[in-house]
Amino acid sequence: MFCYMLNIHLILIFIVNICQGIERPLVIGHRGSAYLPELTLESQSIAHAYQADMVEIDVCLTRDNQLIVIHDLYLNAVSNVKDIYPNRSRSDGYHYVIDFDLNELRNLTIHERIIPFTNTQVYPARFPSSSSIPFHLATLNETIELLLGLSHSTNQQYQLLIEIKNPEYHSQYNTSISSILISTLQAYNLTESHHPIVIQTFHIEDLLYIRENLNSRLRLIALLTWNHLNESSSNFDFYRSEEGLQKLKTFVQAIAPNMELLVNFAADGSIINVTNLTVLAHKYNLAVYPWTFRHDTYKGNFEQLINFFHRTVQVDGFITSQPDIVIELLEKKI
Amino acid sequence: MFVFVLFFYYLEICQGLQRPLVIGHRGVAYLPELTLASQSMAHAYGADIIEIDVCLSRDDQLIIIHDTYLDGVTNVKDVFPNRNRTNGRNYVIDFTLEELRILTVRERVNPSTNVQVYPLRFPSKSIVPFRLSTLNETIELLLGLNHATGRQRQLLIEIKQPEYHVLYNKSISKIVIETLNAYNLTRSTDPIIIQTFNIEELMHIRYNLHSQLRLFALMTVYQAGVSVSDYDFYRSEEGIRNLSNTVQALAPDHVLVVDYDINGEIMGTSNLTKWAHQYNLNVYPYTFRKDLFPGSSFEKLVEYFWHIAQVDGFITDHPDVILQLLQNDTTVNTTFSTTLTTTFNTTSSTTLTTTFNTTLTTTSSTTFSTTSSTTLSTTINTFNTTLNRSSANFLHLFLLIITFLFTSIKRSELYF
User: Fold this and answer.
1) Same domain, B340 and B397
2) Is the peptide bond before A292 cis (omega within 30 degrees of 0)?
3) Paired sense of beta strands B249-252 and B214-219, if any
4) N or C: chain B end with fewer CB closer than 10 Å?
């Protein structure tokens, strides 16, 4: 009789083992993670420690053509630029990254995001923006060396998802940010599809340029959103259609859509239904990585949200500010 | 009977939750020591406590650095080529905070040879510009991360060489206490602990500076004429009794806790932990570095210290590794003890109980890789490495309910 009990126990263990062995969707740490000022080397390190598969970063250009890791084209939401360079703002009151050289930007300290020109923290539950800790802006070179160094020291390979911010804006300054990015990566021998670098941007035509003109073999992801937001001149309505996805398939490996393009939400945050975008994308072998899953600001039940996108929408990964929470939720289900 | 079994179940679960503490030594091994990034990783990995070292600058600022000189971890020689002393080294106390902020910090090298001390760690040649931080910044990092993550970690501040700082007419302990006061960190319940090798300084902190913070006594091998305190006395029973009036724990070099033979094999445990526990002191030995122990010997070492030496925690460069080892082992212990108690009451199982007793003790004290001949042990091994605790508990409850149902049926059959 006891042996019978034991057998049941063993069978249960066996089943659980099998289920745990199945791969979970990718978890991508948005700007590193929510717990430290975005995009700092510390925020990236903490995402790695939380076992995020990928860390997502944004790059913009300085006046002297250096790639800076920052989300906005201006400096006022995350730095003390107003105090250090009070006379260098434009007529709209903002200080733009492209108006500064790298060595000038190195004098700034970075803090948790605030609403510019106020003292109001955008995400109140996060790291205090009033802290005196002198975080700094990182360059892409430093970010790459952090990635490679950490992979070496931890013996774990995580990947970097580099978003090129507003290539068309940078073209106005007669620079091709994409070319500079590809050259920087080449200097570190990061060129192939199996290398731990992925590139994404909202300007789909730049992805085509990277693939066909710059001949890059790196993996590319097409960011998708609503046309009316003017993130780029690309026609996202077209690229979301079956014909558009078919075209995308010829030069990118995945799409990264606003999650509202995949499901329809009600006002209270609950989900009404699923759109057909994921099914279509999968039909053309494009992976789907929606953004951004923020645990501290989502109005509904976060666990249900993740579950729904995992089981029903069947996305291939999650771009999230709280990679540790999403990983725990994904691994919890037996 | 069901109640009896349930009681044992809950007892075992509670014991399983009290694992030894894990203290991240200088943050973690994976990034240059003591940087904010390294401390952040320790926090994220789940280290209960993050250990840092403080020294004073020329202008009395508390700098987070392990050595009293800068050449092991910074580019001071390149930035300030003429500021070294006659021994060739550049000392923290010869520089102001403003000057120290210009330096970049890298993974530790031997200052004489420029060779990386731990080759498997972050490349010391990397251009990533890590910086020295101050105690204020470290405190704000801890409090900010605790707030943002909702997880409460603690800071263990080692005061480096108070007797050296006294030569410069500086009371480093007083400055530490004043800095902590400014952040309202004063009580034994606050997430701050202080430690130092200078035992008399701990007395000074407790009785002259009147601090209520928790204190740990660091101990190493006593060398007459070299050691600042008489560790041979302080690790005797009388010394430990003496210390127990002032400190909350001992942080000894691990060689004081167990006896090693010439080949580095453990022969037995010393009396230190026994006496410490007798006088209500915890024991946190240092330093458990995985990259110094090849193969599975690190796991064996940790298990010995946990189950045989019975220390209360580990000071380690690899908090993630030790946490994993502690959590896996806890799961298995719970499994075995629950299975043991459920078999207690079924009449057919007396012989099996004895077998389980032996299996339980052997597997808890040696590594799991020594699988016994039964298929049960092998399966438990895989179970050990992949299952997390909440799933294990769910399974146990299920198992218990089924056992109860079956044993109830069996008992009722006896009446017919």
Assistant:
1) yes
2) yes
3) parallel
4) C
Prediction pTM value:
0.85
When divided into structural domains, chain B yields a total of 2
| CB neighbour class for B350 (10 Å; exposed up to 12, middle 13-18, buried from 19) | exposed
Query: Do residues B347 and B308 both lie within one domain?
Result: no
Q: Do B402 and B320 belong together in one domain?
A: no
Contacts for A18 with CB less than 8 Å, ≥ 6 apart? none
Say whether pLDDT at B375 is over 60: no
Total residue length of chain B: 416
| Residue A69 near residue A58 (C-beta atoms within 8 A) | yes
B148/A153 touch (CB, cutoff 8 Å), yes or no? no
Structure ipTM: 0.91
Residue with tokens 């609503």: A226
Please give the residue of chain A at the shortest CA–CA distance from B396: A9
Q: Please list every residue in chain B whose beta carbon sits closer than 8 Å to the beta carbon of residue A153.
A: 29-31, 120-122
Could you tell me if residue A171 is left (phi over 0), alpha (psi between -120 and 50 degrees) or otherwise beta?
alpha
| CA distances, B38 to each of A35, A326, B91, B248 (Å) | 15, 23, 23, 27
Both tokens of A293, joined, read 């899953």
Helix (H, G, I), strand (E, B) or coil at B110: coil
**Percent of chain B with pLDDT strictly greater than 90:** 70
Nearest to A127 among B148, B390, B402 (CB): B148
Domains recognised in chain A with CATH numbers: 26-73+139-331 (3.20.20.190)
Q: Is A36 helix (H, G, I), strand (E, B) or coil?
A: coil
B26 backbone dihedrals φ, ψ, rounded to 5°: 55, 30
B318 token code pair: 């690899």
What is the domain range of residue B403? Answer: 2-14+329-415
Return the bridge partners of A162, or none: A57, A199
* Residue closest to A154 by CA, chosen among B108, B123, B294: B123
- Closest CB to B148 among A34, A142, A332: A34
- Look up B147 and say whether it is catalytic: no
pLDDT for position B357? 29
Instruction: Output the pLDDT for position B291.
Output: 86
Written as one string, the DSSP assignment of A163-201 is EE--HHHHHTTT--HHHHHHHHHHHTT--STTSSEEEEE
Average pLDDT of the residues of chain A:
94
On whether both B303 and B348 belong to a single domain, the answer is no
pLDDT value of residue B365: 28
